[in-house]
Amino acid sequence: MKRLxxxxxxxxxxxxxxxxxxxxxxxxxxxxxxxxVSFGDPYVLRTKGLYYMYxxxxxxxxxFSACVSSDLVNWKKVGQVYxxxxxxxxxxxxxxxxxxxxxxxxxxxxxxAQWKNNPTKxxxxxxxxxxxxxxxEGPFKNISDKPLFDxxxxxxxxxxxxxxxxxxxxxxxxxCYKHAVPSEVANQAKQKGWYNEVExxxxxxxxxxxxxxGTIGEPVLLLRPPVSMADKQAEWESRSVTSHEVNRRWTEGxxxxxxxxxxxxxxxxxxxxxxxxxxGYATGTSPLGPFKKAANNPVLQKNTxxxxxxxxxxxxxxxxxxxxxxxxxVYHARVGKSDNRVVFIDRMKAEKGKITVFGPTTTPQPVxxx
Length: 370
Known about the structure:
The protein is 8% helix and 43% strand. The protein is mainly β. It has one domain: Tachylectin-2, Chain A (5 Propeller). The two termini are 30 Å apart.
């Protein structure tokens, strides 16, 4: 965020105020966050001149529903597009974080769910599956009676990146479940009597087959919480522990994109059900890293310290204005004392290896230009 001498005054402003005042004004028409959409983990697909939003919850029963919009502002319910509990379903509950991609005139949904094959009766037996439909409205049907793959631990939050060479990569989060990791914050938590151990989730990447029937090669560890509290990322990624919310540190909800030869991976840290959920990012020169976390993390977080009412900002996706010139960060958050996750859409930029998210906003913002 450092600028020339003439901009030092702007740097003294609170982050959320600075973000709202520097977003480009491109339209007289406005919209205001939060949108009237109650999704967690929102994902937006643009196809055939329309935007389709999928997410966790939103009234779906053991599956996923969707909304559709022509302008990213006015959303109409499509209804339930995927029903998880069927005779051929490998999933039996906790259907989370759907993302839909248009490939070869078909629509493929990647999602997380509890796998019914659970001989040791694990509390978290999450895996990732794929369903397909002829239309973005569904109905989506499983392409297999089993998950995409089983790495030997529970996984959630699938994201797929298609590189310029045609290769596709799956990114996912290893769950915190039964994954206690030694670290300085874990030592601190034990010494202070907060928790005996701290579990962590890590983000991995792996190439996937063109027909999405399986993986190619072994998963590569890409992101994890810092071990040392001297790491500049440790403070914000450890807030769920240091604020005594829970004995876990998350790295999840990743989304990968490429711009000007740089690979960006955004991710969420901290407890998804708490106030400290926030978004950071890292950059690299290949789809499987290595990735370096950014100095200006987190780029999206609660604004209550500056008088706002927004908390729990996280699990974002990315979309573009109808004219393709602007990037938008689509994420869920909570407002006030409500536990309901609602959707926010704010402008963002990715330039020369640096991401800026102009949010969270709750004041009128310009509608994207068509």
